[in-house]
Design goal:
single chain; about 220 residues; alpha/beta; Glucose Oxidase, domain 1; 7 helices
């Protein structure tokens, strides 16, 4: 899928909420696609969607500072424009995103960042509007103690296996991972579900009994 096509799809599905996407996946028999609820947005008002680029990392005290920064900047260079970076850092000690990295990724066209780990420089990142979902914040950084690896390789966060070219949809409710081979179907069906829910809402506001609305539209 080329960048223009993926950007168009991402812009479409980013308008909708993660709950509707979850419901569509469940109806398709694709369950267990929600990331742990501890991963939350720095800015709860912002949504994020797009094709995933994965990587992982490891924490080890006493690493060479130059080597850790060299590996980190390689990740920033490799991250594809239009993607959502998703990281399993295998660590809960340091921040795996900060101000200069966020600004670099935003400049390079990366849509946002999801990490089962930490972030720092929150005020700056909020100021530039780069979308980050993380589990905690800390001033500690990766220098000399954490290194990224496995760029583009499959990862696991919670019970969810995530591959590059899967898709992420994230908002203040949570994060849903969509298998890449069904993204077009999921986008189309999510839009249909949203339209049906709007009809149910309008019917109830016009005085229809909720049970009657459910039976008529098959959705609630």
């Amino acid at each position: 899928m080329d960048l223009d096509t993926s950007t168009g799809l991402a812009d479409r599905i980013e308008k909708y909420y993660s709950g509707a996407v979850h419901d569509v996946l469940r109806a398709m028999g694709l369950t267990g696609r929600v990331l742990p609820h501890e991963i939350n947005p720095l800015d709860p008002t912002k949504r994020l969607a797009g094709p995933v680029f994965t990587f992982s990392g490891r924490y080890e005290k006493g690493m060479d500072a130059h080597e850790t920064l060299l590996a980190w900047t390689e990740m920033l260079t490799v991250a594809p424009p239009g993607c959502v970076l998703v990281c399993q850092p295998n660590d809960d000690n340091v921040a795996h995103m900060g101000e200069l990295s966020a600004e670099t990724l935003q400049l390079r066209g990366v849509r946002g960042y999801i990490v089962d780990g930490g972030c720092r420089d929150v005020e700056f990142i909020l100021g530039i509007g780069f979308r980050v979902f993380c589990t905690y914040t800390t001033p500690s950084d990766v220098v000399g103690c954490w290194i990224p690896h496995g760029l583009g390789d499959p990862i696991e966060i919670g019970d969810v296996r995530i591959q590059t070219d899967d898709w992420a949809v994230a908002d203040r409710d949570g994060i849903v991972i969509i298998p890449g081979d069904v993204i077009n179907e999921v986008v189309d069906e999510t839009e249909r579900v949203i339209r049906t829910e709007s009809k149910v809402r309008s019917a109830i506001l016009d005085g229809m009994d909720p049970k009657e609305a459910f039976l008529k539209y098959g959705k609630f």
